[in-house]
Amino acid sequence: TCGSAGTNSSNNNYGDGLSNDYLFLPSKVEVGLDSNNADKKFSAYSDDASRVKKHYNAGSASWWWLRSYHSYSSYLSCNLCYFVSSAGSNSYSDYTYICGVAFCFAF
User: Fold this and answer.
1) Confidence of residue 78 (pLDDT cuts 50, 70, 90)
2) 35-70 as b/e: b if 16+ CB within 10 A
3) Residue 61 and residue 63: Cα distance in Å, rounded?
4) 19 with 5: CB under 8 angstroms?
5) Looking at per-residue confidence, does 9 or 37 come out higher?
6) 27-46: pLDDT as tens digits
7) Which residue, among 85, 84, 80, has the nearest Cα to 95 in the 3D structure?
8) For residue 87, how far is the Cα from the chain centroid?
9) Torsions phi, psi for 7 (to 5 deg)
């Protein structure tokens, strides 16, 4: 679910807490879309271009979900979740939009 942050979740960080899981969706902090926490971003996400994900067969860029949810959303209903746009910037929408996912692995 949107906003889940694994074993390190709390209801006041909007899904942006660092995850302790081995397989997880990244948060907007981890992909460098929160300038207040730039020291916590993953080095693979240095700019908008590094966040662009392309379809494997068509080569066109696609939106993909983050685990972060918008502050207007209730922690329990979590109806507005952040995604990375085809340009690599962030936006938010309800969960009825079709977006891809980009899982992170921790070893």
Assistant:
1) low
2) eeeeeebeeebeeeeebbbeeeeeeebbbbbbbbbb
3) 7
4) yes
5) 37
6) 999 999 987 887 888 999 98
7) 80
8) 14
9) -80, -5
Tokens of 60: 């066109």
What does the block give as tokens for 14?
Answer: 């909007």
7/21 Cα distance (integer angstroms):
7
Which strand (E) or helix (H) includes residue 48?
A: helix 48-51
pTM for the whole structure: 0.74
Closest CA to 105 of 1, 24, 4: 24
Q: How confident is the model at residue 106 (pLDDT cuts 50, 70, 90)?
A: confident
Q: Which amino acid is at 77?
A: S
Please tell me the distance from the alpha carbon of residue 101 to that of residue 55, in angstroms, as a whole number: 11
- For residue 81, give the H/E element and its range: strand 81-84
Predicted confidence (pLDDT) at residue 66 exceeds the cutoff of 70? yes
